[in-house]
Design brief:
Number of helices: 13
Strand order of the largest sheet: 4-6-7
Radius of gyration: 27 Å
CATH architecture of the largest domain: Orthogonal Bundle
Largest sheet: 3 strands, antiparallel
Distance between the termini: 32 Å
CATH class of the largest domain: Mainly Alpha
């Protein structure tokens, strides 16, 4: 798959779940290089957070020119302090892809080598060791992304062919070179939301699977009890303006289209009603849990689709500070 600008969640599925390889479009690499070259020139004789200043409350302190590169290495190493269980490989891979994509927007001023190495790690199934627990402030996934950055500079550990090994050993085996930290690679790699986004994308994929299973099982139970079909009808569900409810009902109708067990009300209670009956043999309507599946699963689908939109927006956004804007020839500080 060639990556240029916008990634959809289905693209993540192809790469993370189906192991499709990625290619970098030339326009992407050009955009990254322009951002790097601009920041390199622009940052001379200017105060730019995280380039020639300390971090957080230490931003008030100027860093000398000869120490700026070491500053980035120190940031990565000092924040690589996670604990607990390692994150699952698919979540880490999703994190790497999210980080690659957001850094490729050209708003972070990183060197092309960062993008190339992330691509190689993804394509070769080399998974950085990132721990579940650890956080610093409200600036995103600092500790988790520090462990990713640690691997990119050739340190830390990775999972490779099912084994936990030192990054150095695996890089030597695979013929990979660590990045040489330039202007702000440390901060750019760490200052973002790619781990929570990656985990969210994997969870959204699994939630979609569970929603589909729930829908199919609900259809099966409706068949088992030989339910009437009017609670699934477009006419009934169309009286509610909730998209999720309507969509679930539509999916259930499609799934049950060839069912021999689902009944039509007009063929039973509406046409074979015996006036003298005091207690009806035919069940008038199903239990709530069966006739209200669209109303139950509908909000789940609405929530899931909203979540997916948020995730898709985030992985295609710059999540960094400061933001490098080559077009404006300016560096913007914010959050």
């Amino acid at each position: 798959m060639k990556i240029n600008n916008f990634l959809e969640l289905k693209d993540f599925q192809k790469i993370i779940i189906e192991n499709e390889k990625i290619e970098l479009d030339e326009s992407l690499l050009s955009r990254v290089d322009k951002s790097f070259q601009f920041l390199k020139e622009f940052s001379k004789n200017k105060v730019i957070y995280g380039v020639n200043t300390g971090f957080g409350p230490m931003a008030q302190f100027k860093i000398s020119d000869e120490d700026t590169h070491q500053l980035q290495y120190n940031l990565i190493r000092s924040h690589s302090s996670g604990i607990g269980n390692p994150l699952p490989a698919e979540e880490v891979k999703a994190c790497m892809l999210a980080r690659l994509n957001t850094l490729s927007l050209g708003n972070s001023g990183v060197h092309q080598s960062v993008i190339y190495l992330l691509q190689e790690l993804i394509n070769r199934d080399i998974t950085p060791l990132i721990f579940e627990h650890g956080g610093v402030g409200a600036s995103g996934d600092l500790v988790q992304l520090a462990h990713l950055a640690l691997v990119l500079i050739g340190e830390g550990e990775v999972f490779y062919n099912g084994e936990r090994k030192s990054t150095k050993e695996v890089f030597e085996t695979e013929g990979l070179e660590p990045i040489k930290v330039e202007i702000r690679e440390g901060l750019a790699l760490m200052n973002g939301t790619s781990v929570m986004s990656g985990i969210g994308i994997v969870n959204a994929y699994k939630a979609n699977q569970l929603t589909d299973i729930s829908l199919r099982l609900s259809c099966a139970i409706n068949e088992i009890v030989q339910a009437y079909d009017d609670h699934l009808s477009a006419a009934l569900n169309g009286t509610k303006k909730h998209y999720g409810q309507q969509k679930v009902a539509e999916r259930m109708r499609a799934h049950l289209a060839d069912s021999k067990l689902i009944r039509k009300r007009e063929e039973h209670l509406y046409t074979h009603f015996q006036e003298q009956e005091k207690v009806f043999k035919e069940k008038v309507q199903e239990y709530y849990s069966l006739r209200c599946v669209p109303q139950i699963l509908g909000p789940v689908l609405d929530t899931l689709e909203y979540t997916e939109k948020v995730l898709e927006n985030e992985i295609n956004s710059a999540n960094d500070n400061p933001i490098i804007n080559v077009e404006d020839q300016h560096v913007y500080h914010g959050g």
